[in-house]
Write a structure and sequence with these properties.
Chloramphenicol Acetyltransferase; four-stranded mixed beta sheet; two-stranded antiparallel sheet; 36% helix; 18% strand
Amino acid sequence: MLVQQEGLDAPAVSVIPPRDKTTVPPLSFAQERLWFLDQLEPGSSAYNMPLALRLTGHLNVTALERSIGEILSRHEVLRTTFVTEDEQPIQRSTSVATFTLQRVDLGQLSEEQREAEAQRLASEEASHPFDLVMGPLLRAVLVRLKPEEHVLLLTMHHIVSDGWSMGILYRELSVLYDAFSKGNSSPLPELPIQYADFAVWQRNSLKGEVLEKQVSFWKDHLQHISTLELPTDHPRPPVQTFHGATHTVQFPQTVTEALQVLSRKEGVTLFMTLLAAFQSLLHRYTGQEDIVVGTPIANRNRAELEALIGFFVNTLVMRTDTSGDPAFREL
């Protein structure tokens, strides 16, 4: 954790200005984290962000291809690679070029074989590592199952994207495809700044005394931090594998409503109530009093950042002292 919320407490600036195009843009603090991890474990796919879209009905492949190309043109960060110059990582963007959509036709296979092969291709694409130096850091593959059924595989590296960005990508793709399919031009407004402009602004805002103050805060806040000793059913592997899974649990509506009522009564958000419940559960399982939980934040506190694809998300450390047997409402 470098700085508190990576720039949220920086000196106020009315608008993030476009950078001087003659200067080489640095990496943002968030990007430098992932760049460093890539140096430690080159060839890892742990920070791939895959998206698979099943498309049914007549597909205008030309319009789809043009739509993805327009998104690449709009968002400079998707045309960016990361190289080292004078022993420092920098961003290097390429000029806009004609985008060619990779296509795979599975129409000759049986339905069962098509689905199995499509799943294999999706898994293969999601796990194929990116080269941060060579790029590109967005890949697109169109898998044709039947004349009116396709799967679009979109994969980005986390260093140029985040969860919010995936929503932007999906929305812009929908809007552009609709426009281009009808023979219209792009209806999307021009972006006021690019991600590299944000990186330059962030570096200029967070330095010297401002940066030292925030680093000092987190060093003090995380001093003597405790590692949770959870009673897992299997020992941790000697080398981290990232072989995990997601398990989804859906609460009944009555439970959700009761939690919302409790949150309003206590004057907190639903997130705060659920976080307290999670920390209570960890305390119960571990018996430890120092409970530390990491949680992501969007980190888009400025209007000019809301429509940008890029890596803005940050992780905050929520540390809770459960000593003295506090009541749940105190947590």
